[in-house]
C-alpha cells in the first residue's frame, strides 16, 4: 500500500492525524507534490501559512454573501453552541431573521447591530454581530472563484476558525451551484471546524466527486475517522490509548521514525509505510501574525477589540451561571456581601430579562387573542355552511372580514404557481439570450484580433525584408569602398590637390585650384572613366557605391 493508492485508487476521503510536530505537514507537502505531478486540481486551506508551493500564489479568503446567505445562521449557531447550547439557539433565530431582512452583508451587520442595542438587546444578535464584524474586510459583492492556496494566518484565533468554516460551506455551495467536480480539498487544522458541520460536509462532498483530505491533531481523533482512509502518525505516549479506545492496529505502538500507519477503508487493510519528504514543497515555521486593521479610537486593532468583546461576553455568561448556582443556605448570610460585590453588568442582564419577559407576555396575549378570533371565524363559516348558505352569502361574509382576496380553491393556487413558473422561465430565457449575445460579441472580438494579427505579420515581413536589404547594401558598400579607395589613392599620386570623403554609400571628391589645363583635363577624365558625376551646385564630384547609382547611370 502506498500513499498514491489512497489518493488515486480509492474514492474515500482521507484523515491525517498525529501529535504536534509529528510529521503531518510533511505528509501534506508530499500529497500536494503528488497532486501537482498528476495535474490534479486542489484547494489548500492553509491555517497557519506554512506552505510555499512553486507557481501558486497564496491569497486571503474572500466570501460571497450571496453564496453564504442561507447558511450563516446555521454556521454561527454551531460555532457559538460550543460555548453555550442556549446561546447557539438564540443566535440561530436572530441571524435567520436578520438575513431575511438584508440584501447585502453591510445591511446584515447593520441589522444585527440595531437588534443588539437598546431597547431590543438581542443577545443572539450581539454575539453574531461581534463575530461577523471581524470578517467584514473579507466579504465581497463580486463573483468569487476557486483559489488553489488560501491562507488564514493573518486573522485572530476566533476569526480564523470562522473563516475556515465559512470557506468550506462556501466551497460546498460553489460545488452545487457552479457544478465544480473532480478536485481535492486539503483542510489544515480541521479540528477548528465544528464537528457536526464537518461530518455533514464530508457526507455531502462525497456525492459530488470531491475528495477531502483533513488534518487533525491527535487529541481530536474520534471513532468516525475510521470510516475513511487514515494516515496515522505516532502519538508518542498516547499510542496505546488510541489502540485500546478506538481499535487501531497494534502496529501504531511500534512505528519507526519516518513511518506512518495507513488504513485503506475499502479493503479494511492496515499497513506501515514510509513517506519520503517532498523536494518540491517548502514548509516554513508556523507563525500566526495579528491582522493590522487600524481603528480610530485608542489605537487598538478592530480584531483585538472584537476578541475582548467575546471574552467579556463569555465572562458575563460564567458570572451569571455562578450567581444562579449560589447555595440556598448561604443566600441570607451573604446577602450584604453580594450586594457590595455584585457586578453592575448582572443588573443590566436582569433589566433586559425583565423587558424581554414583559414583551413575551404581551406577545403571548396577542397570539391568544388572534387564535380566539380565528376560532370564532371558523365557527361562523361552519354555521353558514350548515345553514346551506349559498356562495354569494359566503363571499359577503368573507369580504366583511377582509378575507375575500384569499385563494379559495386548489385550482386557483395551481394557476398562480403556473404563472410564477412561466415568469421564471421567461426570465431564464432572457438571461440565456443575453449570454448568447455576449458570446457572439466575444467571437467578433476574436475575429477582429485575428485580422489585426494578420496585418502585424505582413508589417513584420516587410520590416524583415527591409532589414535584409540594408544588410546586403552594407556588405556591398564595404566591398566597393575598398576598390574605390585604391582608385582614389592612385588619383592623389597624380593630382595631389584631390581630396575625398565618404558619406554613407556616397563618395565625394573635391579639389582646390589645379594648375595646368592638361592636369585638370586628366583629373576630370579619370573621374568620369571611374563613374563619377559632377554636381554644379556644390562643385564636387560624387559616386554611389550601391545599385542606385548604377540605375541612375542607365
Provide a descriptive summary of the structure in words.
- The chain is an alpha/beta fold.
- Among the domains are: 1-62 and 151-291, Rossmann fold (3-Layer(aba) Sandwich), CATH 3.40.50; 413-553, no CATH class.
- Helix content is 56%, strand content 13%.
- The chain contains 18 helices and 16 strands.
- It has helices spanning 3-9, 24-37, 65-68, 72-81, 85-100, 105-116, 123-134, 157-178, 195-206, 239-246, 302-324, 329-333, 335-341, 344-386, 391-400, 410-494, 517-529, 547-553, and strands at 14-18, 42-46, 51-52, 63-64, 139-140, 149-151, 183-187, 210-217, 229-232, 259-264, 269-274, 282-283, 498-503, 506-511, 533-535, 540-544.
- It has an 8-stranded mixed sheet, with helices on both faces. It has a 4-stranded antiparallel sheet with strand order 13-14-16-15.
- The radius of gyration is 43 Å and the shape is elongated.
- The relative contact order is 0.08.
- Mean pLDDT is 79; it is low at 288-301, 319-336 and 549-554.
**In the CATH hierarchy, what is the superfamily of the domain at 1-62 and 151-291?**
P-loop containing nucleotide triphosphate hydrolases
The total of helices stands at 18
Number of strands: 16
Q: Please compute the radius of gyration using only Cα atoms.
A: 43 Å
* Spatial arrangement of strands, main beta sheet: 6-2-7-8-1-9-10-11
Shape: elongated
**What class, by secondary structure content?**
alpha/beta
Question: What is the third-level CATH name, the topology of the domain at 1-62 and 151-291?
Answer: Rossmann fold
Largest sheet descriptor: 8 strands, mixed
Distance N terminus to C terminus? Answer: 88 Å
CATH architect. name of the domain at 1-62 and 151-291: 3-Layer(aba) Sandwich
CATH class (first level) name of the domain at 1-62 and 151-291: Alpha Beta
Amino acid at each position: 500500500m502506498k500513499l498514491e493508492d489512497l489518493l488515486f485508487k480509492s474514492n474515500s476521503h482521507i484523515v491525517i492525524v498525529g501529535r504536534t510536530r509529528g510529521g503531518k505537514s510533511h505528509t501534506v507537502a508530499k500529497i500536494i507534490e503528488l497532486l501537482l505531478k498528476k495535474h490534479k486540481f486542489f484547494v489548500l486551506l492553509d491555517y497557519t501559512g506554512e506552505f510555499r508551493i512553486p507557481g501558486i500564489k497564496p491569497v486571503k479568503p474572500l466570501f460571497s454573501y450571496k453564496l453564504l446567505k442561507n447558511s450563516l445562521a446555521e454556521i454561527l449557531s454551531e460555532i457559538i453552541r460550543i460555548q453555550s447550547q442556549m446561546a447557539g439557539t438564540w443566535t440561530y433565530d436572530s441571524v435567520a431573521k436578520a438575513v431575511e431582512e438584508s440584501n447585502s452583508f453591510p445591511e446584515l451587520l447593520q441589522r444585527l447591530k440595531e437588534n443588539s442595542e437598546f431597547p431590543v438587546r438581542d443577545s443572539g444578535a450581539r454575539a453574531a454581530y461581534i463575530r461577523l464584524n471581524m470578517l467584514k474586510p473579507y466579504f465581497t459583492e463580486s463573483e468569487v472563484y476557486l483559489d488553489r492556496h488560501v491562507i488564514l494566518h493573518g486573522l485572530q484565533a476566533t476569526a480564523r476558525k470562522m473563516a475556515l468554516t465559512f470557506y468550506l460551506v462556501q466551497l460546498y455551495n460553489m460545488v452545487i451551484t457552479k457544478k465544480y467536480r473532480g478536485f481535492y480539498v486539503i483542510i489544515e487544522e480541521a479540528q477548528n471546524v465544528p464537528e457536526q458541520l464537518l461530518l455533514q460536509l464530508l457526507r455531502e462532498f462525497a456525492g459530488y466527486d470531491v475528495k477531502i483530505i483533513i488534518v487533525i491533531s491527535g487529541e481530536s481523533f474520534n471513532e468516525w475517522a475510521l470510516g475513511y482512509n487514515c494516515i496515522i502518525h505516532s502519538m508518542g505516549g498516547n499510542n496505546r490509548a488510541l489502540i485500546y479506545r478506538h481499535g487501531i492496529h497494534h502496529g501504531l505502538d511500534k512505528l519507526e521514525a519516518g513511518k506512518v500507519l495507513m488504513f485503506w477503508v475499502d479493503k479494511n487493510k492496515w499497513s506501515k509505510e514510509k513517506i519520503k519528504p517532498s523536494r518540491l514543497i517548502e514548509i516554513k515555521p508556523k507563525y500566526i501574525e495579528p491582522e493590522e486593521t487600524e481603528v480610530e479610537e485608542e489605537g487598538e486593532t478592530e480584531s483585538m477589540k472584537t476578541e475582548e468583546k467575546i471574552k467579556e461576553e463569555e465572562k458575563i455568561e460564567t458570572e451569571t451561571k455562578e450567581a444562579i448556582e449560589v447555595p440556598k443556605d448561604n443566600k441570607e448570610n451573604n446577602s450584604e456581601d453580594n450586594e457590595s460585590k455584585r457586578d453592575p453588568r448582572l443588573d443590566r442582564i436582569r433589566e433586559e430579562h425583565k423587558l424581554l419577559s414583559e414583551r413575551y407576555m404581551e406577545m403571548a396575549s396577542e397570539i391568544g387573542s388572534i387564535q380566539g378570533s380565528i376560532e370564532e371565524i371558523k365557527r361562523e363559516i361552519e354555521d353558514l355552511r350548515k345553514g346551506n348558505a349559498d356562495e354569494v352569502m359566503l363571499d359577503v361574509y368573507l369580504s366583511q372580514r377582509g378575507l375575500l382576496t384569499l385563494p379559495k380553491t386548489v385550482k386557483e393556487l395551481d394557476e398562480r404557481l403556473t404563472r410564477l413558473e412561466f415568469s421564471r422561465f421567461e426570465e431564464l430565457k432572457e438571461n440565456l439570450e443575453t449570454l448568447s449575445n455576449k458570446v457572439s460579441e466575444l467571437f467578433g472580438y476574436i475575429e477582429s484580433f485575428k485580422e489585426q494579427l494578420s496585418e502585424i505579420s505582413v508589417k513584420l515581413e516587410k520590416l524583415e525584408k527591409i532589414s535584409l536589404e540594408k544588410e546586403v547594401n552594407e556588405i556591398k558598400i564595404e566591398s566597393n569602398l575598398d576598390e574605390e579607395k585604391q582608385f582614389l589613392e592612385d588619383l592623389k599620386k597624380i593630382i595631389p590637390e584631390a581630396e575625398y570623403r565618404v558619406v554613407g554609400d556616397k563618395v565625394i571628391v573635391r579639389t582646390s585650384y589645379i594648375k595646368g589645363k592638361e592636369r585638370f583635363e586628366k583629373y576630370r577624365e579619370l573621374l568620369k572613366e571611374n563613374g563619377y558625376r559632377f554636381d554644379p551646385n556644390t562643385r564636387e564630384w560624387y559616386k554611389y557605391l550601391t545599385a542606385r547609382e548604377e540605375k541612375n547611370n542607365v
